[in-house]
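Long-time lurker, finally posting.

We've been working with Beta/gamma crystallin 'Greek key' domain-containing protein (Champsocephalus esox) and I want a structural starting point before designing mutants. I don't trust myself to interpret raw outputs, so I'm hoping someone here can both generate the structure tokens and explain anything notable. Sequence follows.
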Amino acid sequence: MSNSGMNMRGKIVFYEEKNFQGRSYECMSDCSDMTSNLSRCHSCKVESGCFMVYDRTNYMGNQSFMRRGEYSDYQSMMGMRDCIKSCRMVPMHCGQYRMKIYERENYGGQSYELMDDCDNIMERYRMNDCMSCQVMDGHWLMYEQPSFRGQMMYVRPGEYRSFKDMGMSGQKFMSMKRIVDSC
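Top reply, 14 upvotes:
Generated this for you. Predicted structure of Beta/gamma crystallin 'Greek key' domain-containing protein:
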């Protein structure tokens, strides 16, 4: 059994205005719709743990990974165009990491199993694209460009048959990184 769920402590505080001003909302778990708690969110403090934040409700849209620290104007720091609308806590994981990536949707085409970071699937595997994956162990960030750059997507243990179904239409992923900050 994975250690993913053993220690799920995390705390993030969201603020309506930049520089930690205005009303605040404290969150210690996943929140699919922050608009019921705050009308807008322009800064936050991660007091413990790691979180993914999204610019749309229900964990959709542009994503940013946030580790412990202060984000006084997260929009300019993270390159997000809109307010944070949902967040997901990244559980602590101290075991092994395993993910199988596929060139096509529905687990088609070439496939390779990863157990560590991959900064460029084209160079390492001669694979032009990654359009589906299965995460067996650990929590990962997938990036649209090599060297862990560009838009990212958070994946946790589970099956991802089509990234299009997750609101990532036309999205290619060219590099993958394990989330090890939480251990």
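Before you design anything, note these points.
The first strand starts at residue 11 and ends at 17.
The chain has a mean pLDDT of 88.
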